[in-house]
Design a protein that fits this description.
Layout: H1 2-13, H2 23-39, H3 52-75, H4 79-88, H5 91-94, H6 106-112, H7 116-124, H8 136-163, H9 168-196, E1 205-212, E2 215-221, E3 233-239, E4 249-253, E5 260-263, E6 272-280, E7 283-284, E8 288-295, H10 313-328, H11 335-338, H12 341-356, E9 370-378, E10 381-385, E11 392-396, H13 403-413, H14 420-427, H15 436-455, E12 462-463, E13 468-469, E14 475-482, E15 492-496, H16 497-503, H17 515-521, H18 523-532, E16 540-545, E17 548-550, E18 555-560, E19 568-573, H19 580-591, H20 608-623, E20 635-636, E21 642-644, E22 648-654, E23 661-662, E24 676-680, H21 681-689
Parallel strand pairs: 9-14, 16-22, 17-23
Antiparallel strand pairs: 1-2, 2-5, 3-4, 3-6, 6-7, 6-8, 9-10, 9-11, 10-15, 12-14, 13-14, 16-19, 17-18, 18-24, 20-22, 21-22
Helix pairs in contact: 2-3, 3-6, 4-7, 6-7, 8-9, 14-15
Length: 690
Amino acid sequence: KMTQQMRDLQLAQARKPPGPSSPNAAKRLYRNLSGKFRVNYTSFDEGSLVGRGEKEKLRKSYLFQSNAALFEAVELQDFDRVQEMLKHYSPEELDLNTPNSEGLLPLDIAIMTNNAPIARALLQAGAKESPHFVSLESRSLHLSTLVREAEQRVNELMAQVVNEAPNADCSEKEKQLKAWEWRFRLYKRMKAGFEHARVPDAPSSVHLSVASSTSLQVTFWEPLSVNSAVVTKYKVEWSCSPTFSPLLGEAVIDKLKDLHFTIQGLVSGTAYHVRVSAYNMKGWGPPQASTPPFAIPSNWREYDGRAPRRRGQAEALDHLLGQVKTVHQHCICHEPCKNQPQSRKHSVSKSLKHLFHPGSKFLKTLKRGLYLTAIFYKDDNILVTHEDQIPVVEIDDTYSCLLMQDFLWLTKVSCMWDEILWLRQCVTVSQSSCSCILQTRFKMLLAISQMQGLLGIQDLGQVFFEPIKDKQGNILIVTLKEVKTNQTFESVRWVPICKLQSGRKSVSSPEEPTALDTLLISLQDKLAYHQRSSHALSPGLYLGYLKLCSAVDQIRVLVPEQLPNILCHVKIRSNPNISREEWEWLQKMASVEEPVPTEPETDRSQNPLFQELQVAIKELMTLVNIPLQEAKDFRLYSQEVLDFGDQVSFLLLLPPSDDVCTAPGQNNPYTPRSGFLTLPLQIFELGEER
């Protein structure tokens, strides 16, 4: 019999203990199991068990129980319990795709009882249908066998209960009878669900788009009617013929968390037709053709054969840096570093003194000058010196040169923290010929080396986009770095940020706080900025807004506070690729100097990119507080698509030429709402690279 074959196969794989004999028993098992998993299982360690073998035996016992509890939750159609188990335990812990003694998987029971919510949850967790149901006949035969055997068992137990005198054994038989009656009803419901089901309808919609010059993206939606059976997989087919004869390829998708598929390895410039069909336990339904009916793999670069802007740039820069290092190996600027007996002796003396005063290198207070501070944080903790001070070292106590240019130079240095010693050798010059700027930058490198040496780490992190100044003449440059691991540093220790802020005794007045007090007050804001500046955009095509403002010594760019490493933007669509046809349309629109599309036009309603841009422009104008009628004078940057890797690309929306950059003293009538800030252009470029 089919059922006996299933059981023999299961016994060959692993012997599994029987599940609970009744719904109430299942509930008790689940409650006990949940408690054991939450308390005992997660607290195992080597010292709590006699040996590793006992630990493994106990773990397997819990896995067996979890599998039984999941089966019972599915059979009872308890969606909340199924969800909770899938949330807290992995498919391996739940033994999700191992059949029970009846040859069934949890997903089989869910789909044959037509419990769509549980079936979808199981599918998203990676559940599969039993591979033994190779045909409709085999599934029907297996269900009929289960029903017949359950009915036979019910009749046998009923006869025993009726004929035996009341005793302990009879009471146990009654419990078994109730359990088998419940299972008999379950199997009949599964058999009826299978018999009444029909193949699913076609997917309700299939969208086809160009993903690259060799691939197409297919996105589809569930059928409007599944005909009393849950869809468990989809089939994507493609061909160069609208009749799909011959068929060039097909793919079956059984991971249904995201209903999309990318067809790879296609020929650029060739038209492909695509269709999708759905499957349930009754078989494949009719296919649904895509919209548009075909697509041609291509990329906007094919329009004029343009190569990627950044191709080979990293290699070229590495080669250039290597050449510079080679030239500087015998440079005269290294001579002061070769003959320094007195300086070395003095350095040794200072090092010995440092052994007795471990905190003497870090400053407690600022005394009118330029300083460097390094903020290392992990969760809600921050690194401080043994005297509960933020690590601060002095750069220059007589600083009087233009700060912004030196500051921007230092932000570039932050990209090569490991090369500070070499940079110091390159910048070293004799005092007689040393300019003010060169002296300041050399002192910056000395301060960086000092901070690195005291902390015992090279990478000081990212430079905050503006230094902190106070009315006492102090300037504080801040670096920020998040520590992911339990890393230890020299001369410093971890303390909670709130403890540091509440415990510091300010030496300044609230009206005129020192730079250190200002840093502590705004510490959370700076940490939030640092974390946000490392966030990445989700894959897709975006519309960015370029707005600059100039000052005497710098140009700043408008960015959102929530993502300061990217221009103000809205998402156009999830597909980042601009096809050749779409780029040709954008070029045509730019050549005739047409305004950006803000209002619907009937003759272009069939162009998907036109419709997507309309929606995106309206959303972007609302975001940056610009009236929509003003956008008619804006234009799309038509020289190139800005690609950030393979998954993110940008189209730029530009104001009129005279308004791209606001000059000093010029009023901007449309000030963005809160949630934006302006970064120095060089800082923004560095953040974009990170």
